[in-house]
Amino acid sequence: MGRYKKEEKSWMMYDWANSAYSIIITTAIFPIFFKGVAENAGVSGADSTAYLGYTISISTFILAMLGPILGTIADYKGMKKKFFLFFFILGTASTIALVFVPANNWVMLLIVYMLTTIGARGANVFYDAFIVDVTEAERMDEVSARGYALGYIGSVIPFIICIAIILLSQMEMIPLAVSTASKIAFLITAIWWICFTLPLLKNVKQIHWVEREPRIVASSFTRLGKTFKDIRQYRAIFLFLLAYFFYIDGVGTIISMSTAYGSDVGLSSTGLIIALLAVQIVAAPFAILFGKLAIRFGAKKMIYAGIIIYIFVCIYAMFLETLVDFWVLAMLVATAQGGIQALSRSFFAQMVPKEKSNEFFGFYNIFGRFAAVTGPFLVGVTTQMTGSSAIGVFSLAILFVIGFVILMFVPEPKSDRHYPGFDKS
């Protein structure tokens, strides 16, 4: 990373840091651990998948309610890092708390998991907004994509360690119960997350801000209302947010519920975990590739490509029966997952006023968070109504289709590297 500035590298390292949470807690080990605890308590597989979906919906709804006003306050001088630090501490502390939840209490497990989700996703609101403080518009696609790639690479290391501990406990090669090994994985996640966040805390500074005003909270509500009006006036931004609302909903739901779905169709936890490890490895070069291709073809076209891949994933999920099928599905997700997230972040960042980045990213995240409420809820309701997790996943295809159609109406910028064409209209 020799050609990147210290601030850019420090910012990208947070993707390295918190991706351990994303794979171990959100995607892989915690959902399998939770479903085991719920099953032992007599909860059916379909119901436990639904309860997990409802928990994700509730936590993201809470954050969606807080995001815009917190983002508005965070645009004041010196406030962005304070809000980032609060949510970072909430996320890491509650992840450690998972270790101490009694192994037979699935309700408490979901409550603590909800706190970890609020902390992790809340910190990401302000982390994403920091991109305008660390790099220039013409480098945002590349820096954002490289951050996601680092996240995939970095998450592999603690993930392998955690998998090794769990597999060794399953084979009785170490004197640990599988549940204890899973809890050790939660602790490793928190330690990794804390250690590699230190460069951001040390080197990344808020350089674009709004000067503080008297009665900061009341002033923030006034500015929030003005920001909402501004977003409506910026036609391109508003249309992009609508498109993002739908397609990122599907992306996030597939990420957070993939292992629960795999378990429901009878795949072993070991096979699921190894497949997810492969996803992390494959996704890293594809995230970089998406960033490179965005320079040539534009970020919007590459977002289209990612949406099309995900539509096929939803259709293919209907026919998933074996571990090989799950591997095919996982590799398809790996090709698009990092790219569509990275380019959405950088595409939006290049449109917004830098000094109001937190305000606009507050809306970016409220659209993303409200979307994350509907996706898991849709899967949960559809699964319970039909008794089929496959149909639940297939129902997400409609979200990708709607997002694709709305994105077609987002005007192309006059230049792939600058966005002077995004005028108020």
UniProtKB/TrEMBL annotation:
Q: Keyword check for Transmembrane, yes or no.
A: yes
- What are the TM regions of this chain, as residue ranges? 20-38, 50-71, 83-101, 107-127, 148-168, 180-201, 236-261, 267-290, 302-320, 360-379, 391-410
GO molecular-function terms, A-Z: transmembrane transporter activity
Q: Which PROSITE patterns does the entry mention?
A: MFS (PS50850)
At the top level, the lineage of the source is: Bacteria
Q: Name one Pfam family in it.
A: ATG22
Q: Which GO terms describe its cellular component?
A: plasma membrane
Report how it sits in the membrane. Multi-pass membrane protein
Task: Write the record's keywords in alphabetical order, separated by commas.
Answer: Membrane, Transmembrane, Transmembrane helix, Transport
- What is the recorded name of this protein? MFS transporter
What is the native source organism of this protein? Answer: Oceanobacillus bengalensis
